[in-house]
Amino acid sequence: MPVTPTRPKPRLRIPGMITPRTIMQRMTMAITTMMTTATIIMTSIAITIITTTITPMLMTTSEPVPLDARRGMTDDEAAALYRLMTWLSPAFPVGAFSYSSGIEWAVEAGDITDAASLREWLAAMLADGSGFCDGVFLAQAHRAASSNDNAGLRGIAELAAAFVPSRERQLETSTQGRAFIEIARAAWAHDGMEALISACGGAIVYPIAVGLVSAAHRIPLAPAMHAFLHALVSNWISAGSRLVPLGQTASQRILAALEPVVVATAKRALQASPDDLGSATFRADLASLRHEAQYTRLFRS
């Protein structure tokens, strides 16, 4: 008996009917769309973060704000700087180049033989000797002159003139003080200068002269102090470099090494009172005493 093959029954299709395959396709498209949207959002957030945080940091690092764009000097500040640079320059004719403050005898005696020993000698003179004392005298004279304290100015001027260990140091500081006053007065005339000079009542030594003139021209005390101590140390190094002798590079290395000593000494001198005056550099004082009897001399002290 022949077998009649069976035919598959046709599927019933209803218009608008959603098949499982269609559902899978639409779900896949939806998931893909969501992932793409999330990726775009995350990318946008990342770009925003980079733009708002990293970019300014890079700009700040690569393009710092120029120092001169923050605050410029006023006319008075520029004038004060100009005068300080002139008055305390080695070229200002006070005769500082002809004095060694006893360094010449120290070289002759063998206390100073090279750059290292010169640096140690000068550091002691600056911090514990005449450098600190002169800084105190400058500060006190500046304050007295600024406040029109004639009695205080006279008192500190007399004390500074007496506060020297030898005749040659007296010659050195009084000669430079007189030259500083005369040249500054001649080149930069000032109405109140004569009254301040008269208030001193006698010889005006170098640190008093610098403090008085700076105050008369309304130059702030702190920069005047630093400029004065820098000039003092520079002159000592110049004398030592000629006597040892030393080259220019070695001399500048000594000046660089003494920078923190100058800063610390200036700070102490600005905070000190006349009661804090004192010296502990006995060897340097002996050098200034013995120099006048030295057989051969290049310097006046």
How does this structure look, described?
This protein has 301 residues and is mostly helical. It has helices at 20-62, 75-87, 103-109, 115-128, 130-146, 150-162, 167-187, 193-200, 206-216, 221-243, 248-257, 259-271, 282-290. The longest helix has 43 residues, at 20-62. It is globular, with a radius of gyration of 40 Å.
Strand and helix map with partners:
Elements: H1 20-62, H2 75-87, H3 103-109, H4 115-128, H5 130-146, H6 150-162, H7 167-187, H8 193-200, H9 206-216, H10 221-243, H11 248-257, H12 259-271, H13 282-290
Brief summary of the model shown:
By secondary structure, the chain is mostly helical. The protein has helices at residues 20-62, 75-87, 103-109, 115-128, 130-146, 150-162, 167-187, 193-200, 206-216, 221-243, 248-257, 259-271, 282-290.
Helix content: 55-70%
**Number of helices, counting only DSSP H or I runs of 4 residues or more:** 13
What letter string, H or E per element, gives the SSE order?
A: HHHHHHHHHHHHH
Can you tell me the CATH architecture of the largest domain? Orthogonal Bundle
**What is the name of the CATH class of the largest domain?**
Mainly Alpha
- DSSP strand count: 0
Q: Rg to the nearest angstrom?
A: 40 Å
Beta strand %: under 5%
Return the CATH topology of the largest domain: Urease accessory protein UreF
Low-confidence stretches: 45-61
Overall pLDDT level? 85
The CATH superfamily of the largest domain is known as Urease accessory protein UreF
Main β sheet profile: none
Identify the overall geometry. globular
Total count of domains? 2
- Structural category is mainly alpha
What is the rounded distance between the termini? 149 Å
